[in-house]
């Protein structure tokens, strides 16, 4: 977590850093700070709270440097306070850090730092070690320090007596960088560079970069010069601003028809799914005996939909495993297993570690990621990029639906590779998939109706969501969305499971949202709705088309979803659930894009 930005050039650095930190706030927003390199040393301004607070502090200080670095924090070690905010200074060294130094206590002892550190952070220990090793050679100090660190880090370092230069090194935690006119920029995320350039490179792990007016020098730890491998951002940079919407979440929900369409079209060649650009041979799809999806949160929920599609249409066994639990449950993963690692950021440490473990077990790994050159992408044999563009709101929306689009395409390619479908079936499937963006547009046009539905949940303390099969998978995601942005306790239940315990929680005060989109499950789902209604629950029904039950059910509210083939109802229904969560949060006056305690990119285990 945490966002890092660095700038050296001809312009006033302070405001550049503050603007970038605002863009990076989605990575953590407990505190913010900057360090400015001046002729007479380094000036640090930092405080607990958002970048807004930092800007106030900056106005009170003179910030006229042209070289500086900034940090926005998601607290791990040490509470949210001014002193724990980054940058940290020790002697003549100033450091910002993203990641976790696991052995910081051991290092505190070893370097006699007890009583000398002012913060409770693991990061200040790094500043102290650098200061210990620094004797006019920044590279030697950095090398000696990082070789003693255990954990993950993206570090940016300034030395008081080297004005105009910033040094950076990383292990696992991301740093992307670019040379620009008159200097250089680096950050945790390409989105923060896009104001300056569309060409960037991923700082290789354990390489030291030195950023200055002349550009960037790059060395490996043995001192050998290295060449950066530049890539081009193919994101529309306008997607990094709110585009007139009050929140990124709303904007990103509204972008879904376009980004789902783009994702589908990117991987359709001559009307059929084709992953040959990513060099994925059909043998991968044909020869695997089982599939294991590893992912976290929303990405894992996408995996659950993928499991239903693949198991029902291809007949291969699919496990979906929370990446954070993967290694600890003796997973059955071997060379016959195809592992799908799904991640928006491509940096989620749990998913990355699970992926590395799966690779060691000999599995073939395909990652489905949104961010080019991210760690999960780099560590996978094959990569399929979703075309969601930058997703800034902490709550994932368009990344999820583009992940689903990829999973629909993968299912069809697998069917082709295994000769399972005839031409007519493939054609029918693809033409329904291509219709998804249009159907999502229809849903979005009815946003006022959905806003009205949200009214039924606004005052609720708990909301239950019930459905079966694919409807249940969708609701797991819908429920996460509601919890995450509205702080309403919400649970999704497979509706058949309710009467095995949970139904005890149903009262007149509990809104129950029921989703009914699967023909084969409809009658059972409707019976389960009756069961909760008999216990007083107010039911909000999302149902496919005009398929309303004949009997009198007296629903609190009903939303008729546009019709698609059953297996394709997932995306339009999910969009309704995203909007519901969004409106509840916005109407409660919450900070929709930055819910409390969260960060967009989870780089700590
Ligand atoms: O970047 P990733 O897709 O790997 O992130 C995984 C989860 O942290 C993420 O989906 C999280 O659950 C979202 N905030 C949910 O909206």
Can you tell me about this structure?
The protein is of the alpha/beta class. It folds into 3 domains: 3-233, Glutamine Phosphoribosylpyrophosphate, subunit 1, domain 1 (4-Layer Sandwich); 248-438, 3-Layer(aba) Sandwich (Rossmann fold); 447-587, Rossmann fold (3-Layer(aba) Sandwich), CATH 3.40.50. The protein is 34% helix and 24% strand. The strands form 5 sheets. The protein has an 8-stranded antiparallel beta sheet with strand order 3-2-4-1-10-9-11-14, with helices on one face. A 6-stranded antiparallel beta sheet has the order 5-6-7-8-12-13. The chain is globular and about 80 Å long. The termini are close together. It binds 5-amino-5-deoxy-1-O-phosphono-D-mannitol (M6R). 5-amino-5-deoxy-1-O-phosphono-D-mannitol (M6R) binds at residues 296-299, 343-345, 348, 351, 394-396, 480, 484, 602. 5-amino-5-deoxy-1-O-phosphono-D-mannitol (M6R) is lined by residues 296-299, 343-345, 348, 351, 394-396, 480, 484, 602.
Question: Main attributes?
Answer:
eight-stranded antiparallel β-sheet, 18 helices, 605 residues, 24% strand, Rossmann fold, single chain, Glutamine Phosphoribosylpyrophosphate, subunit 1, domain 1, binds 5-amino-5-deoxy-1-O-phosphono-D-mannitol, six-stranded antiparallel β-sheet, globular, alpha/beta
Gross morphology is globular
Structural class: alpha/beta
What is bound: which ligands?
5-amino-5-deoxy-1-O-phosphono-D-mannitol
- How would you write the strand order of the largest sheet? 3-2-4-1-10-9-11-14
- In CATH, the architecture of the largest domain is 4-Layer Sandwich
Uncertain segments are: none
- The radius of gyration over CA amounts to 25 Å
Q: Can you give the helix content as a percent range?
A: 25-40%
Strand content: 15-25%
Mean pLDDT across the residues is 93
Separation of termini? 11 Å
Count of individual domains: 3
CATH homologous superfamily designation of the largest domain = Aminohydrolase, N-terminal nucleophile (Ntn) domain
How many helices? The count is 18
- Oligomeric status of the shown chains? single chain
Largest sheet: 8 strands, antiparallel
Give me the CATH fold name of the largest domain.
Answer: Glutamine Phosphoribosylpyrophosphate, subunit 1, domain 1
By CATH reckoning, the class of the largest domain would read Alpha Beta
